[in-house]
Amino acid sequence: MSSEKQYDVLTFGRSSIDLYSNDLGAPFEEITAFKAFVGGSSTNIAVSCCRLGLKTALLTGIGNDQVGKFILNFLNKEGIETRFIPTIDGTRSSAVVLGIEPPDRFPLVFYRNNAADLQVSIDHVLGADIGNFRALVLSGNALSKDPSKTATFFAAEEAIAKNVQLFLDLDFRADQWFDPRAYGVMVRALLPKINIAIGTEEEILAASLHNNDQITIKHQQVSAPEIKGNINDAIARILNLGVETLIVKRGAAGASIFQREQSEIIVPGFPVEVLNILGAGDAFAGGFVYGCLQGWGLYKAVRMGNACGAILVTEHGCANFMPTISEALEFAKNHGGL
After folding, report:
1. What is the pLDDT of residues 5-48, one digit of tens each?
2. CATH classification of 7-334, choosing from 3.40.50.300, 3.40.1190.20, 3.40.50.2000, 1.10.150.80?
3. What does pTM read for this prediction?
4. 20 to 30 Å CA-CA from 246: which of 195, 262, 291, 336?
């Protein structure tokens, strides 16, 4: 770790209380009880990084409410730096209600009206002093509304000016946008500033969503859209915007590394029995960022991300179940190594 920086990583974006079905396999309408955990993609990534041993801080917003206190209490117990998290009066901490119907149904409902984390401003970014971090992980969802949108672009400018490595979790949630095409417009404006972008094939297609002849979306199912298009064309468009590296998450199949004018590098995943896929991509991001900050090559860093994601899909929730460094390394060792 560098002696010149006070922290390893700052994540910026969503936070929430996650209410997960306690009736595993039950249809959503028949759920009788929930378990309360902490969630939100940027929060999950922060917890993943921290448990792996990185000195981690989170920049999000919470309301002056019990849910905000619930989130802060968990983060403080984890050892994540929370002094950059503002309590924003007049807003609400977010909530998500989730069903678990393995292997492939995980319905969820967001409660994000007047979401506190979307009220994070330029002043809050300045308060975080981004120059004290080795890496900054931004979120696509934070671009959905101002002042968070503007604060995200400002944070990217600060990172570039202060030699901080920039990661972007594409984090596409269609029902958080007034028009899914707006997501693509905002993300494409940010991508030229980004060193490494991480996303699923669906998120990469959404980031390229500008031509209805190439990509379509079922507006009547906006909370779970079907996005169609040529993934190779979408990957090429993102790389042509100036991103140095694009990591494509492919679930059980692992992930792929793309860089301009280089061949795809396929990094295999770890076969496990799936209980819950929600949050696995965030565990992946934490493991990958960890590997990058250790100076590992991209292949090994992605393999670490795959290991963390594989561990999480066997668990009930997200942040509360992120693996520690010893758990991740032991899992990888027992499943073919990094």
Report:
1. 999 999 999 999 999 999 999 999 999 999 999 999 999 999 99
2. 3.40.1190.20
3. 0.95
4. 336
